[in-house]
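Something for you to look into today, if you have time. Could you write out one complete protein record for me, on any chain you like? The space below this message is yours for that.
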Amino acid sequence: MIRVLLADDQSLVRAGFRALLDAQPDIEVAAEAADGEEAVRAIRELRPDVVLMDIRMPLLDGLAATRRITGDDALRDVKVVMLTTFELDEYVFEAIRSGASGFLVKDTEPEELLRAVRAVVAGDALLSPGVTRRLIAEFAARSKQPAAAGQLAGLTEREREVMALVGIGLSNEEIARRLVVSPLTAKTHVSRTMVKLGARDRAQLVVLAYESGLVRPGWLG
């Protein structure tokens, strides 16, 4: 059973999400929170698998709450998905840097929300390739001069190659086709790379790919 915590200051939004999620046989809503402080307290107590976190909330906004969660080693397995009104919310990029696993727009289709919750728990790509590439393109446009790539010293050549492909927005299936390997092998390479770099998830791996200079703006084609 996937346990989800809903954090949003709008009760109607929480009610809609709860009705959808609780209707699934493999998902349950563990708790709700109306502000960031309440969300952090509930997360520390309940340890849900996934948090659907609104960016704009009173007392403590979603971005600050996410930093507290991702900065707590005891909550390392909790995945945070940011909820935004617009796909390219100005805070989304900072949220990804802070450890959020991705983001969803509040008016997303029900099937996409359910797929996203299950995908992030499985460690797979959270967002559709199109949305992922738009996010990466925007991040690339805002990125600074890449740092030294010393943090990649422990990676094999194949792992660097896989990380670069993740960095340009390819899914495991697309990576498998590009490298002529099985999807399981591609997923294994991605997982090992994340472990070696201490990345919480795929989204952070994308950020590291740019910050290390392994992938540079303009590679998106």
In short: The chain has a mean pLDDT of 82. The first strand starts at residue 2 and ends at 7. The first helix runs from residue 11 to 22. The two ends are 40 Å apart (CA to CA).
